[in-house]
Amino acid sequence: MPKEKIELIITEKPAAAAKIAAALGKAEKRSLGGVAYYEIKKAGKRILVGCAVGHLFSLKQAEKSSGWPIFDIEWKPNYEVRKKDWSKKYYTTLQKLCKEANSFIVACDYDVEGEVIGWNILRFIAKKENAKRMKFSTLTASELKESYKNVMKEINFGQAYAGETRHKLDWLYGINLSRALMEAIKKAGSFKILSIGRVQGPSLHLVVEKEKSIQNFKPEPFWQVYLLVSNSHKVEVKYPKDITKKTELAKFKILKGKTAEATTKKTEEKVNPPAPFDLTTLQTEAYKFHNFSPSRTLQIAQQLYLAGLISYPRTSSQKLPPSIQYKELLKKLLKKYKKLVDYAKNSKPVEGKKSDPAHPSIYPTGEYKDLQAEEKKLYELIVKRFISCFCEPAALETKKIQVMVNNLKFTAKGLQIKDKGWMNVYPAKMQEKKLPDLNGKVKIKEIRIEEKMTQPPKRYTPASLVRELEKRDLGTKATRSSIVETLFDRGYIKGRSIEATKLGISLIDSLTRHSPIIIDQKLTRDFEKQMESIQTSKKELKQKSEKIIEEAKGSLKKIEKQFRKNEAKIGKELVASVNHIREQERKDNTLTPCPKCGKGNLRILYNRKSRRYFVACSAYPDCRNTYSLPPNSLIKPVLDKEGKNETCEHCNFPLLLALRKGKRPWKFCFNPECITRKEYNNNKETNESKKE
Ligand SMILES: [Zn+2]
Ligand SMILES: [Zn+2]
Q1: What pLDDT, on a 0 to 100 scale, did the predictor assign at position 682?
Q2: Closest-lying ligand to the alpha carbon of 627?
Q3: Catalytic one of 90, 91, 161, 312
Q4: Among this protein's residues, is 312 annotated catalytic?
Q5: What is the rounded CA–CA span in Å between residue 537 and residue 386?
Q6: What stretches of 342-413 show up as alpha helix (H) in DSSP?
Q7: Separation of 621 CA from ligand 1 center, angstroms?
Q8: Which SS3 state, helix, strand or coil, does residue 189 take?
Q9: Share of the chain above pLDDT 90, in %
Q10: Neighbours of 583 (CB within 10 A)
Q11: Are 213 and 450 in contact, with CB atoms under 8 Å apart?
Q12: What's the pLDDT tens digit per position in 391-421?
């Protein structure tokens, strides 16, 4: 009797497994150790749909050792790398499903990360060299069915090797540079967890350079000159250049009362709709309109994708291929967005220049679901952008008035929107300015001179920094927002309008002086380009990957040479800035004079053993006054703009802020006698009961 055919479809996330199973037929939901999987009987075979939960494997040093550099790495299951790893049950379930199955399909997200996730499961759990591959850009039933029908014969080894190479490179850089920094600090007699990654170094360098140009900026005065001219109409015209020498203003001051010659020129202009969304543009626009950080935008977009509402968001494409079936899509959107779709007059969309071998640009699938506020905002931005691509250009009339006097030319510009076109659908920041026609002789009624100061360069925002990284080919579309996030987490940068911190600046200064390869943009970019070329190539993938890794090892050895030579200096410099930060923290954490003894000050302290913050008197051991604080939280003082403690309106104690993972920051009063204490106790209970 022939063996029963059992096919296992490996997906990346539980939500994707559910969608794929539902698309392929009548799926029975099963559960193994708390992990859902699905079974479908179809055409004489059994199809199992199982899921990972992102990466189930991590890179780890093969032989444990201290010191650096270290180059021996291997993939290990997460649960062997991290204690209490919650992905173990997914691993175990896939292990059982792999044993049952005799044919395999990888159906992870179609990009480098998805390919690595699937490849690792194949190699290390299923013990297979290859499998079939489903490729799709949306989790809609129709596309999933198509993708299953046209399943590819093998996984995308280009993506797999490119992804694995990136993991190895990042790991090698991350571990070695962090160890280098921490060892230098240790030898200088201090301790601090510091790290800098392969792309983080050059990225931080950008922010620090900007910070310095702002610090070194010296504002200079300059002047702008306006004339109020009139015949039957009054118009203010401007001298187009800024005047930087005060003495030059004399030639304008004599113009009052003179007669000038005015001409008006009109031009019609068409403005095409903007290109469809690639990830970076979506992140930029979501920041502009809704203030979402780039990583938040990616997170929400990922949820929308998993819900089947939009196409795959990690794309750099600005193309919309006909295969997505524009007409049907617009028809589906018509149900909910009729007013907008009515403006979609063209049968073909505008497209941008950027493309992506794996996915089209981000577009809505036309399916609906109730959404939460932030999801809805992002979803509708995507819907509007998509629809606007099919709209007519906007028609603008620009008007330029030119006034000549004493051989000096003054101008005024007007703008009128004749036909809004796509601007009816997608928000555009364009201000109308109406001007009358002004021709012939005019009188100069007034002269207005405005004194201004030159402005320092603008700081990056999280969105503009992501864009700058893209422009410089640093990082990838999928990693840039998390690189920026990491710089925040490490305390190297701060603020919505990004400032480099003392620590960030001194780290870059120290590395620039003593180990510049670490922050070399060109090297980082070269690696990026080589990995990209692996992704699209078909042969000698392993050799190409090994070549990059060898190059990375070579550059790490060079870094080691530079670094060791200057280790003492680097250590000393970093310790100085770490101490400075600690001093600042100590100041911030000192709250108020102790109400019990009146001699000491109350301070926020951290107990390493219980991993808990508490408030105690600085006169310890003479005064043993302490206050307990909520567990599982990072506690910070609440400071106003002048750096003073904000106080409780009921009891005047300084207020504290508790930051807890996945929860909103909570401002509270730590005085046990305070009437707001009730709230604190309630919160404490919920916190305690959540502990395992
Ligand atoms: Zn005290
Ligand atoms: Zn209080």
Answers
A1: 63
A2: 1
A3: 312
A4: yes
A5: 32
A6: 373-388
A7: 9
A8: coil
A9: 79
A10: 10
A11: no
A12: 999 999 999 999 999 999 999 999 999 999 9
